[in-house]
Amino acid sequence: MLPVLLALAWLAPLALAQQYVQASFSLGDSNGNPVYTVQFFRDPSAPTVFVNVQAVGAAWTGLGFGNSAMFGATVFVGWSNGGAGISISQRSSTGMFLPAVSASNDAALAAPPAGVQALISPLSGATLLFGFTLPATYFDHNNPTPMIFAMSASNGPSDPTDPSSAFGVHDQGYAVSQSIKLVDPPAVAAPASSLSPSAASAASPPKASSTAAPGGANTPVKPSISSGPTPSPSNSTSAAMSVGGPSCSPDNSFCFTAVADSTGNVVTITLQTVGDAWVAIGVGCSTMACDNMYIGWNNAGTTVLSQRGASGHTVPTPNGNSDAVVVATVSSVTPMVGQKLAVSFQIPASKISLTNAVQIMYAFGRGTSPGADPKATNLVQHGGSDHGVLMVNIATGQATVVSDNKQTLKLVSLYYSQRWELIRHSLGAWLSHVYCLGHSALLHCFHCSLFESQTWALVVPPAYRHWNHHLRLYTCCPHHY
């Protein structure tokens, strides 16, 4: 009897795991460490989905439903109410500004259902933890559901006790679009032994032809790799395993989708971007010191693909590899909002991990495409914000945005360069006024101007701050004008 009880105890968690359809999302810091995770649990027999949220140092977290970023999205934002409770607010977003409070209230704070607590992966250092339920109708049960996620560590609500309170914008790099695959599991076929020989024969799939049929979703288009043998693209889709939807940059200017085909031992990758010159990824790379880059562009309707490498911040050069093949974009990949360029290609599965998370460095250019030559050197440089790093796990469909810690340095540098420009102009102007004002009058104007500077800085638009000096001087020293 004891062995039976032990076996039942061991099988109980497995039964609970199989009861729920699960999916997860993770957002990481500059080192790739998760700081915001969301897990979804759907019992196919229940009308609701349980959502578990964990975040490190967050003033608020948000998740929303919609495939156009913050345009036309239904958003759910949660924060600590200042005590031991949580405020959760349903919002309607129509653009890149504070979402409006919705008249609906579909989210209900809740504890994990029976058995779910054991399935939740704890987030180390989490300071904001809560769970809630949503109607299962928010999720597509047959296809990935497009969603958006964001958080802020500092721009909290003005009144934490009020779910309709205003709150600040998400932190730089901590917003992303990601499709969540919370679909029904496939039906399990009856074992062959339970069928009669004739039924088993009828149920057996026809043998694959030794000649691939033309057309199909993965029919290759004209490859543009100029040297080396070109491997044939795989047309097998019977064992395809999708990443579960595109992994996109925080501003939705770039999306990466991968479909692994274990039968053909290849991975089909699609890159989508709002840039119109070129788009590139570095597989397993976080900087431009990368020898596994794929750069694609369009030339007169033909996709050009170039495999390259670089030792640093220089124009990448061909690396001599030719194991990537241009293919048509699979039908399951939908165009992103504002898309101007899409490049699809296949690479050997050995070039990218199918079991562990892999870094995907991305970048894209705007302007003129390089032309017909895959070895072209006239690639326009990408913009300051047109690049980043994603952590993608093809096996689980989980994607993490690695925030750009260099962005803070860029902003600090820009701030002090602007401050120095203002100081330089002001010093020059004050020295010129010495010739027009006496010592005592100049001292009076100086002290007055120090107080007036803050007032005028509030009302003068940034584009006209060069008038700030003259407005302060006129206020304090009208006799000078």
What can you see in these coordinates?
There is one protein chain. The chain has 481 residues and is of the alpha+beta class. The chain contains five helices and 24 strands. It has helices spanning 2-19, 197-203, 406-433, 439-459, 468-476, and strands spanning 21-28, 34-42, 48-55, 60-65, 71-80, 86-94, 100-101, 108-109, 128-135, 145-152, 175-180, 240-242, 247-248, 254-261, 266-273, 278-283, 290-299, 302-310, 317-318, 325-326, 341-348, 358-365, 387-393, 398-402. It has a seven-stranded antiparallel beta sheet, with no helix packed on it. Strands 7-6-5-4-10-11 form a six-stranded antiparallel beta sheet, with no helix packed on it. Helix 4 crosses helix 5 (468-476). The longest helix is centred in the last third of the chain and has 28 residues, at 406-433.
Head-to-tail CA distance between termini: 102 Å
What is the N-to-C order of secondary-structure elements (H for helix, E for strand)?
HEEEEEEEEEEEHEEEEEEEEEEEEEHHH
List unreliable stretches of 5+ residues: 1-14, 190-232, 235-244, 404-418, 450-459
Q: Multimeric state of these chains? A: single chain
**How would you sum up the global shape?**
globular
Main sheet makeup: 7 strands, antiparallel
Number of strands: 24
Average pLDDT taken over every residue: 74
- Note the beta-strand portion: 25-35%
Number of helices: 5
Strand order of the largest sheet: 19-18-17-16-22-23-24
Gyration radius from CA atoms, angstroms? 28 Å
Q: Give the proportion of residues in helices.
A: 10-25%
